[in-house]
Amino acid sequence: MIDKEIMENTLTLHCKTIEELKELKRKVQRNCKNEVKFKIETKHWYGYREPLLLKESNQINLSNYAMCLIIDEAINKEREKIDNLINIKNEEEEKIDVNTTD
Asked: What end-to-end distance do the CA atoms of the chain give, in Å?
C-alpha cells in the first residue's frame, strides 16, 4: 500500500514537471531563430591527492520542431505516470472498500 502523502507528493512533482516542460516549450516556440541549442554539462572529480573538478560540455543544435517533439514526448510520459499513480490509488481504494464490506 502506498502512503497517501507520498502519492500526493509524487503527483504534485509530475504536475510541476509538466508545467515546467510547457513553459520550456513556449520559450522554444517564441524563439526567433529556427534552431535551438541544447547544452549538457557534466562535472567529474579526478584524482585523489589533489582532486580536480573538470566540466565537460556537449552542445547539440536542434530545430525548434525537433525540440518541441522531444518536449511533447516528455509531457506525455509524465501524464502516463500520473495516470498510473491514479490507477494504483483507485485499485487500493477498491480493495479497501471490498475488505470493509465483507
From this structure: 19
Nearest to 40 by CA among 27, 23, 28, 57: 57
Closest CA to 14 of 84, 76, 82, 85: 82
CB distance 36 to 67 below 8 Å: yes
Average pLDDT over residues 4-22: 93
How many Cβ atoms from other residues are within 10 Å of residue 14's Cβ?
19
Q: Which of 2, 19, 5 is nearest to 84 (CA)?
A: 2
pLDDT value of residue 79: 97
Helix (H) / strand (E) containing 38: strand 35-46
